[in-house]
Amino acid sequence: MAQQQRSRNEDGPERSCIVSREVRAPHEMIRFVVGPDGVLVPDLKARLPGRGAWVTGEADVVREAVRRKAFARRLKTQVTVPPTLAEDVDRLLERDALQALSFANKAGEAVCGFTKVETAIGKGHVVMMLHAREAAADGVRKLEQAVRRRGDAAVERIIIAHAFAGDDLGLALGAPHVIHAALIAGPASTGFLARWRRLSCFRGPRPAESAGGAVRPSAPEADELHPSQRSASGHDG
């Protein structure tokens, strides 16, 4: 019954942002609902029952929705909105991405450690390099040089990201502390890339840098990495 309360607009293929009124695909937005305790809850998978409020999946837009008190107007009810809502969503998106990275690791589509990453680059199977936020510039530079030595255009489009702390990478990859990791082309790494794109877009326009040196937008370009990586970018229904 509660599922049936969702509006016709919510059941369609696109959603309208309560702040900008811009219409976007669901995977580019964040849905929010009122929890049983009257507190606003992020619904990343867009599956929770009840009326939902959709916001463009960017931290600044979520903050603006909080500032304008837009959630109560859209949801037509009293709702407690945490002042840290954008930061809460960021943590949830990061956790979701790290879980997907763990799945990729279990599927044999991730490697970690400088030597293993360098070897994977040499084989031409890498679609993304992950460096811990605290990674030393020298190690990053050496791995980028390894990519350049490959020379072929496909490898030149490897995405390079510094989205996670080394301890968090380690937990996802089953190692104590990870500074360098790489994703190998495959279905599980495709799932991680979709979630990483969503996190990256939420955090804002911090450009990802290709190994070839060209600065590229962090999220949309990921679809061009490798034929096996082209997907629907993680629509959760």
Q: In words, what does this structure look like?
A:
By secondary structure, this protein is of the alpha+beta class. It has 2 domains: 81 residues, YlxR-like (Hypothetical Cytosolic Protein, Chain: A), CATH 3.30.1230; 140 residues, 2-Layer Sandwich (60s Ribosomal Protein L30, Chain: A). Helix content is 40%, strand content 16%. The strands form 4 sheets. A 4-stranded mixed beta sheet has the order 6-9-7-8, with helices on both faces. The protein is elongated and about 60 Å long. The relative contact order is 0.14. The N terminus and C terminus are likely disordered. It comes from Chelatococcus reniformis. Keywords: DNA-binding. Pfam families: YlxR.
State the helicity in percent bands.
Answer: 40-55%
Secondary structure tally, helices: 9
CATH topology of the largest domain: 60s Ribosomal Protein L30, Chain: A
What amount of the residues lies in strands?
15-25%
Order of helices and strands: HEEEEEHHHEHEHHEHEHEE
Give the overall average pLDDT: 84
Structural class: alpha+beta
How many DSSP E strands? 11
CATH homologous superfamily of the largest domain, by name?
A: Ribosomal protein L30/S12
Count of separate structural domains: 2
- Gyration radius from CA atoms, angstroms: 19 Å
Calculate the terminal CA-CA distance, rounded to whole Å.
18 Å
CATH architecture call of the largest domain: 2-Layer Sandwich
Low-confidence stretches: 1-11, 207-237
Pfam family, one: YlxR
Protein name: DNA-binding protein
Keywords: DNA-binding
Biased composition (Basic and acidic residues): 223-237
